[in-house]
Amino acid sequence: MTERLVLRQLKLGDAPELFAYFAKDEVTEYYDLDSFTEQQQAASLIQRWNERFDRQDGIRWGIALKSEDRIIGTCGFHSWTKEHAKAEIGYELSPAYWQQGIMSEALGSVIPYGFESMGLNRIEAFIDPDNISSRKLLEKAGLREEGLLRDYFYEKGRFVDAVLFARLKRDC
């Protein structure tokens, strides 16, 4: 929990909220998913994230305002490699809540959780070079740019570059 937010486990009943914003092209523009066309896609995504948690491969929290119990975004860790004490951070937010400091507030709790409770030494993020908002968010959260990875991902039928950001536990 933060001042304005509740971070909680996602449930299948959250699928309509996830679908509502994952159906928007501006949300999936820099995401490795196509815009959703059916609510079942959101339910499947929730299931995958919860299965990842059950396998202890990662954790994804739903983000809700304390004043409403409605999911407006998610954030968490995936690609958790315990032997190397590192994980990748990911997030998205409904456009109605962009530019309000919500994701910065969420990451302000999630990043310390990664270092303190998950035993991470390194938190990474890979973003599209054109995603200026994500760049600013990560820099504000204390991640540093480490380099450009050319044609690093194959998404939506094409190769795309990625900029690698990272924060080390000793940077805290």
UniProtKB/TrEMBL annotation:
GO CC entries: cytoplasm
Record key words, sorted: Transferase
Superkingdom of the organism of origin: Bacteria
Protein known as: GNAT family N-acetyltransferase
Record carries keyword Membrane: no
Pfam families attached to this UniProt entry: Acetyltransf_3
Domain N-acetyltransferase stretches: 5-161
Source organism per UniProt: Paenibacillus rhizovicinus
UniProt GO MF annotations: protein-N-terminal-alanine acetyltransferase activity
InterPro entries: Acyl_CoA_acyltransferase (IPR016181), GNAT_dom (IPR000182), N-acetyltransferase (IPR051531)
